[in-house]
User: What shape does this take?
Amino acid sequence: MKTKIISAFAPASIGNVSVGFDCLGLALERPGDIVIIEAGTKPGATLIELQGDNGELPVETEKNVVGVVVQSMLDALGRDDALAIRLLKGLPLQSGMGSSASSSVAAAVAANEYLGKPFTREELIPFAMEGEKLACGAPHVDNVAPALLGGITLIRSHDPLDIISLPYPKQLYCAVVHPDVAVATRDARAVVPETLPRSIAVKQSAHLAAFVHALHTNDWDLISRSMVDLIAEPARKTLLPHFDAVKAAALEAGALACGISGSGPTIFALCKGKTSAEEVAVSMGKIYADAQIENEIYVSKVNSKGAELL
Assistant: This one.
């Protein structure tokens, strides 16, 4: 009898997309994480292998996001299937590219398939959020939603959960640079102000509304003008060395806009077309290279599929 093995891939994602703090997310094509699930030797979820984390993630099942996600699914179903989990990390940790969300989503998709698809894609979101809660201290959705559903997602409400998939120009690409700099999510959240002046709130709301309209109408100029972050970027950029120089280089190379991916240190730029994105990515990476900071660059169109079975 053939052994049942299910593998799923979940991509990196850009949280906030500058203009939508904690409510916008965008899926990339790569990098991403892979979760493999097969029959275990004891009831419940058991993490049996962990690769690509440089020994930094917990190996205990109840302390790792993939174990928490899969076990929460079993608990919800009232089942005690024996599931063995392997996590292959392709995403750098604390990168600002939704590393924990990618693992959580891949685990949810693989487990759902293994268990006979008891849940719809949308119904998997609360389980993946349990992984985010473990990793970040709060059940964020801005990385989970795009990693799972693909595209660009807008979280209108967390309770009740209301997620909207937005249209976007098919030639919308991202140039991404990940410098070898550590920025802890809790530190990045700590510097964001708890309150905002009314004038800032009004301006940010207008930018977000304009950005959503621009996506619907394929208005490239409006995308560029409206992708403004008046909330997190002014506070967080002090945690990112050379941020202003990288942003200036991206815009000079032709990017529509540039900002911090999630909590950083990754920086992303939106571009029109692959060629432009490639040029922008090289320009961004050169700033770090000149400063003798190791970095990786990625070029990706918006990933329309999200997580997928392998």
The chain has a mean pLDDT of 94. The domain at 5-166 is CATH 3.30.230.10 (Ribosomal Protein S5; domain 2). Residues 198-217 form the longest helix (20 residues). The longest strand covers residues 24-39.
